[in-house]
Amino acid sequence: MSMAGNLRKVTSLGRGGRLRRVARLARRRPRVDLSHPARSPLGSSVVNCVTYRDGVRVPGGVGLVDAVERVRRRGDGFVWLGLHEPTDEEFADIAELFDLHPLAVEDAVEAHQRPKLERYGETLFAVFKTVCYVEHEELTATSEVVNTGEIMVFTGQDFVVTVRHGRHGSLGPLREELESDPQQLAKGPSAVLHAVADHVVDDFLTAIDAVQTDVDLVETAVFAEDGARLDPGRIYQLKRELLELKRAVVPLGRPLEELATRPIRVVAPEIQAYFRDVSDHLLRATEQIAAFDELLNSILQAHLAQVTVAQNEDMRKITAWAAIVAVPTMVCGVYGMNFDHMPELGWRYGYGLVLGVIAVACLTLYRGFRRNDWL
């Protein structure tokens, strides 16, 4: 659709009154970035709506419809609309304004999607899984190690719509960082898409560095003197959380490769080099996760081997003591059969002699077992 056609569509929709609710939504409630913990969340899903021209924020607060209309009338700049967990009703008018595909809209509202990249006409739809490391004093069998969320990005010729799910993955600092670099932001909506991808992958690396500390602690505990007493649930829990991290990181490789190598209309050619750098960082994260997975498998096998060795040692001790106890049990059993004609029954020193023989036999067995490390 041409620029003039888009402008006529926005104008006609505005006259129809259907999109006035979007304008009122953006004007009525203050724009608050829900990612900042010091600020209280509002009832609206709109986090911020800003127009950029030549990489600089256009001053003055205007409604979403007016902002889009001005950008398309001038033919330069773009609108960045940020949303946090919008409902179907809140997103319906926005989807109509930007002509977003219904399938992409459904994914953006419902969330729980795999990282992916899809093209719908002139619009690019990208899904990123965000990861946050959960601090804990000690890793247990029920500890939460990583928490995941999602960021969906709709990228067009003159707009960017970001939809965030979850309480982490802040885009407020990212917006401020981009605004401090007008030259990069002037490259258009694809610069925002790259910044979001780079932000997500950086969070991956941060979480992976923190997970490595947990892996090192578990490894140290397994190979400690009492490693056999370690709860294997800690290792399984860490592997389970690592699997969740893997589901967020690994599927993103293909979308980033496509953004870095294939020509896409809404992605500026000079931005593709930046996507290649992000793809390299993602490859590093993927390799680290694979290494952690293999290391945890080895740690688990080593722990099971230690448990088996400890059990064998216990069985040897039990067997050794059972052999020692068998000597007096056998002798006393023989002399407890109450026969009339048995050796030394009438001898005065027979009782002491039998006890002495039992003691010498038990001591001999004990020293033999100690010499062979059975006791």
Jot down its keywords:
375 residues, alpha+beta, 7-stranded mixed beta sheet, 13% strand, disordered N terminus
Strand order of the largest sheet: 2-1-3-7-6-5-4
Shape: rod-shaped
Largest sheet: 7 strands, mixed
Mean of the pLDDT scores?
82
- Class from helix and strand fractions: alpha+beta
- Alpha-carbon distance between the two ends: 86 Å
Radius of gyration of CA atoms, rounded to a whole number: 35 Å
Point out poorly predicted stretches.
1-43
Number of distinct beta strands: 7
Note the run of SSEs as H and E: HHEEHEHHEEEEHHHHHHH
SS summary, helix count: 12
Strand composition percent: 5-15%
Helix content: 55-70%
Structure description:
The protein has 375 residues and is α+β, with helices and mostly antiparallel strands. It is 57% helix and 13% strand. It has 12 helices and 7 strands. It has a 7-stranded mixed sheet, sandwiched between helices.
